Amino acid sequence: MKNKKRSKKINFKNPLVQLIYFTICLFLGLLFLVAWNRWTESPSFLQRRESEMQLQQSFKIFYARTMYFETQFFTSQLQWFNDSYFDGRSLIFVQSENDFIELGYCTDTIVAWPSVQTQNKLKGFNELEINLDFLYERGHTLKSLELSLPLTIEDVTENWVNVWLLMNNVDLSRNVRISIE
What is the pTM of this model? Predict the structure, then answer.
């Protein structure tokens, strides 16, 4: 004789089983919605996101100031320090004033491009013989920063975060050898 095991199957045709199943699904769905709403729409989430965006914008403005960028609004380097220019406006980088002209004028965006001073600063940095050991000590390479020497205007505008990291982490007293010819 064969010993057959009978597994109990849930009878979904039974109204009581349907009600229990529906109640469980409804409870889990509501629980998920409440958790999602609290996480995404909580003041702390929105404040954190807004703070991150403001911090990134502030850092980008700081970078543009230290790299002597020009814009369609500023005729003086001191104007970079007037924060009223940036209220509600985003800052984007292009490689030249011609790129700005091609892009067109937009009142809610500040477009910045490298100035002659930026190009001189970049040229001076590229002429230094930099000992990159400090990068390796921190677990980085030029490749991991997506950079190569000499740095270019494209690097300054497209990969600006890593350019800033490289240029501002060079300890000039320890890591640079200046060749005098």
Answer: 0.61
